[in-house]
Amino acid sequence: VQLQAYGGGMVQAGGSLRLSCAASGGSFIEYGLGWFRQAPGKEREFVAAISWRGGSAYYSDSVKGRFTISRDNARNTMYLQMSSLKAEDTAVYYCAADRSFVRVTTPLDYAYWGQGTQVTVSS
Q1: Cα(69)–Cα(110) distance, rounded to whole angstroms?
Q2: DSSP codes of every residue in 47-86
Q3: How far apart are CA 76 and CA 72, in angstroms?
Q4: What's the whole-number mean pLDDT along residues 63-73?
Q5: Phi and psi for 89 in degrees, rounded to 5?
Q6: Please, what sign has the CA dihedral across residues 26, 28, 30, 33?
């Protein structure tokens, strides 16, 4: 499966942004999906994950209550609605997919990755 993340940009602190991840070349519903981010000089970190049919969602403590992950299997697209953005949310955001959905917070457990989209939050 090929993934393409888009929707990043620059926003002021307290603002909102919605990221999208479009998938092609595979059966979308067979994949658990995740969002990760990486800030300069830091390791890639887990943001959120969603199960195959969207029945289960997981969030890092740093984004819980502010971000919402969702998926539209009919459109082969996953979303990340980000609200109350903070300067520390600034990073390149990546979407990822894998048929398994066990260690959802671990980047190594995702076989497929999108190219990343930059989110910059100005304070």
Answers
A1: 17
A2: EEEE-TTSS-EEE-TTTTTTEEEEEETTTTEEEEEE-S--
A3: 6
A4: 98
A5: -85, -5
A6: positive
Helix (H, G, I), strand (E, B) or coil at 41: coil
Q: Give the residue among 87, 86, 107 at the shortest CA–CA distance from 96.
A: 107
Segment 73-97, tens digit of pLDDT: 999 999 999 999 999 999 999 999 9
Distance CA 55, CA 53 (A): 6
One DSSP character per residue, 3-27 reads EEEE--EEEETT--EEEEEEEESS-
Residue 60: closest CA among 105, 117, 102: 105
